[in-house]
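TOKENISE THE FOLD
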Amino acid sequence: MCITIFLLMATHVQAAITFDAIGTAATNSATSLSWSHTIGAGSDRVLIVFLVGNIVDEGFIGATYNDVILVPVRITNRHIPSGSPAVWLWVLMNPPIGTFTVSVSPFQATRPIIGISASFSGVSQTAQYGANGGTIGSGTSATATVATTAGEVVVATAVNGIPAQTLTVGGGQTEISNLTTPNAFIRASATYSTAESNTWTLGASGPWATAGVSLKPTGASGTPPIPAHSIWESNMTTYGTTNYNTIVTEYNEWQAGTCEGSGSGTITSSGTTLTFSASKTGLLNLYVCAQSQSRLITAGSGTSWTIASSFSPDIGSPTAWTFTDQPSFFATNYDFYDGVEVYRNIRVYTGNASPWQDGSNKCQDAIVRGYYIPNNSGVPGYQHFTRGLYIDFVAQGTANSKTTVESLRDNAAYSTTGNVTSADVAREAAYGLAAHIMAKRLGFSANQSRRDVLVNALYGHFDQWFTTFYWSGTTKQFAPFMVGLAARSLIEDRDETSDVRLIPALTKAADYLWTNAWDAPTQSMKYDINPDSPDLPTPSPDLNLLIAPMYMWLGMQTLDVQYVTKADLLFQGGVVGAGLGNGKQFNQSYTWSFDYLNWRNSYYGVGRAVPVPPIPAADRPPVAARPAVVDRPAVTDRPR
């Protein structure tokens, strides 16, 4: 495998971006790679790090310089078959002058790897970098195109192999480094050029990959770019498409009456009456299969249900049965963490109706007609999601989205009844509060007393987590992502009430979690930070993006950059480290992260760049419609 790295300078240079130094390392097989890099005394410095090779990655890879975490910018060909090349690219602004260690880890030990670091001076410390690009291909010519504007400098790389082949740079490109792995499987070359669209000629035909990023000169206007933004976008479309395809398969199986769930007991039938040997619930709109036939259940309860048409012949003797369990699969996977909302927001963000709107529609139909309605919305408190239904009604006018929001508010566990005093049910209380907020926005009469119970309970949960430490000395779970879920609902509540308790509560929570739950090597929060809990304190990047928006909102509200920085670290760690091949995990990363982008843009004063569906002003209740905060029961007055 062979790699070439280029420094590509835009035709119109407005500032003196100057090459400083190069550092390299290569290995035939290792789980990490480290090397020294010396930063010169130039001002407005930047460090670019590439990891290149046959990197078979299924998780997190991080880079540091002098133990400072670098920002991931691009991954080309992240999940790859054996033998295919990949490129990871990181950036660090204002690296310290002197000689320090670049470290990249972890990665699979059975592949040859090269690490390259390149430093420059004269780079804007605010606008930092602009576009990035890269692609994959096969043949004897590799191409990388990175858009630039006048004065920018592009750093790019190309990789091919195995074995290492020569890479000949295009005209006008000056090489600054060249090396191979000890076994000559990979060769790396670094150059700079004035070109923006770049080509490399390979010594022999084979697979290749490229990546690059443009640097902005000192004095360029702009704000710090969103970390790992292009990776977040790439993950969104790549894994979103994979999950969408599964949604289509599961949905079509439900519609076709494909029975995959085993029913308990037996059935008999007479005409359109189906009788079960034991009482059943939640069968409406599902298919029951027996005698190699499937029939849609249209009504019923207990042991007696109505089917759309008779079995032929009738089922005279008690017979085993199966049923279409796809809607239950949506409830626990592809609509868990609100697939209706996730795919609708992707549709709006990308501007592409296909396939994202269809994904949202299929999630909506499966979860509403196949799960919520058959169960009269009496579903577990951790399994009802109303934000997507609210958005769906506002955007498309889907009638049963609107009515289901009210029904979930009134019937889902802990939403209208149930003791929510303990933080053990914080997630249920958060979802219940969201249901009350969405129902009010849709114009339904408010259950104000219950909404206040839920709000005060959630503030009480923050007190239990971070003041009284009710979990200490017990085996109770204390999961940071639960704090994020609670924070989201309270932020939505504050949007309408200006509740003065929220910023102090979130400040205390954010500070405590960073000290006690943040795991810097994996750039993620731990799953559980109670040392006596049976849950392991395993770093869980899958859940980062349920927490990062809380930090960003706090930074936006307080203008305290430390929370913005921490939000960025959580975001980039979640983007790079999360496993997204499962519907639930994918939704966890995309149900709230659009707000992170919006709030970050708001902090930097660049406006709302992410066009997620806004809350129509007409659907927002005025603050006066809600009792004043001072009229709420004090936290100490809540029943224990």
Observations:
- The chain has three domains: 2-223, 259-323, 329-611.
- The radius of gyration is 28 Å.
- The CA atoms of residues 243 and 582 lie 7 Å apart.
